[in-house]
Fold this sequence. Notes:
This protein is an alpha/beta fold. Helices cover 37% and strands 21% of the residues.
Amino acid sequence: MNDRKIIKGRVLSFSDNPFNHYFNFELLSIDIKCIYVKNGQIEFIDDTPDLNPEYENAERIDHGDYVIMAGFVDAHVHYPQTAIIASWGKRLIDWLNTYTFPEEMRFGDAEYAAEIAGRYIEFALRNGTTSMASYCTIHPESVEAFFTAAADRNMCVAAGKTCMDRNAPVGLRDTAKSAYDDSKALIERWQGHGRAHYAITPRFSPTSTPEQLEALGALWSEHPECLMQTHLSEQTDEIVWVRELFPDARDYLDTYETFGLLGERGLYGHAIHLEPREMDRLAEVGASVAHCPTSNTFIGSGLFNTAGMMARGINPGLATDTGGGSSFSMLSTMAAAYEIAQLRGVALHPAQLLWLATCGSARALYLDDQIGNIAPGMAADMVVLNLASTPEIAQRSARAEDVWEEIFPTIMMGDDRAIAATYVAGQKV
Ligand code: GUN
Ligand code: ZN
């Protein structure tokens, strides 16, 4: 393969973390630049398209004054819940029992799993999301379907078989042994295969026996190259239930820690109602958390503390949590993150929101050496944003006095119409 492209537009890349207190937003320029892409990777970024003889015959694509940035990275999603998004009227445990579990039951059917995996991936791409960490269902077929759909499009994704051996309906339960065996076989099949990354996935403590958590902890210690994703402290009722199920645990996080399920490459979804000890431990071990703002308002879970997590040195990523979340769009997700932070008294800067949706999520997935930014050596997974995609947005961005004022209306009001193009490994999809 010798595929070269020069992609031109207003390039937004991060050389630093905009949550650092010394970060100078005025220095973060979004100027017209050329991105030189070779075989799916960004080779370099330059001001002119004419410097390098190697690129003489390269395809040239000019996006005018549209903004080119890294494709969005969704740090926590349940692709099997695609078809039950926006289900009315329940809180977490009732919502799982009423809507989620009956739907997830269907994924033992490989054909249905493939249909929904393909549908989900198309929804993600048309919303500018190029990578995600997805839960599957207890069925290995669901994992196969997801990794296959992603591989067909050359996408960098993380996913794993969701493990549950209690408090779930018959037909949606595995065992400690089958969860270990099936997950191990899937790791051998998918981890590091192309752009696939395996995530060992106990759903959450209430649906795993201590024996299953222990087996998965052992599996993670045998495969430390894998991610481990689960849920943590999403709703207060859930936390009370965890306390009843694990009376000896110091707190919710301890139900994972005790069984070897706390560490680097650990990614904990929601993490809203945390005790100080839990925050300290997450920071100490270098764990990540996934902020799922549309889900947290939709299911009524609570207000995640983005600024507090950053200040404590915990890695937050941003996530849709589809279908507990009410959107496939990371633009809507950034808007919800902004609103939740406002309710906590913090106004997140547009650069911070965009950073969370790209670099932050990539770091939360421990993949920030490959995805989440426009820089030499990174994958050419990119989104192209039209900052005047609707009359409503255009009339506001036309008044902008700087680039952040120009971008913010698209974050708050934009949808798939703002996504002018999505590139995966240098190919427009
Ligand atoms: N906790 C355990 N499972 C789930 C799920 O599927 N969605 C959400 N939002 N929370 C969970
Ligand atoms: Zn979830």
